[in-house]
Automatic annotation (TrEMBL):
Family of the protein in this entry: Belongs to the bacterial histone-like protein family.
Classification via PANTHER family: DNA-BINDING PROTEIN HU, INTEGRATION HOST FACTOR SUBUNIT BETA
A biological process from GO: regulation of DNA-templated transcription
Protein name stated in the entry: Integration host factor subunit beta
Reported function: This protein is one of the two subunits of integration host factor, a specific DNA-binding protein that functions in genetic recombination as well as in transcriptional and translational control.
NCBIfam families found in the cross-reference section: hip (TIGR00988), PRK00199.1 (NF001222)
Annotated organism of origin: Marivita cryptomonadis
Amino acid sequence: MIRSELIQKIADDNPHLYQRDVERIVNTIFEEIIDAMARGDRVELRGFGAFSVKKRDARTGRNPRTGEAVEVEEKHVPFFKTGKLLRDRLNGK
């Protein structure tokens, strides 16, 4: 599902809301999650999962084409851990 499909689904399920308002709500939620993660905060949506940021240390990597050693800088990457309810639903429980 992509963002526009999510917006359309919410708008269809809530006919009392205008589509532009639903779009603004969805965009605000995503922006708040992104802003919180940029600050290094953890975002938990009970039953769904938790978004956090993990630090990857600098290391020596390899260029897959040439096999040459390449220095990879330290970086921060997003991480998602599923919640129990989501895991149970995916596994048919």
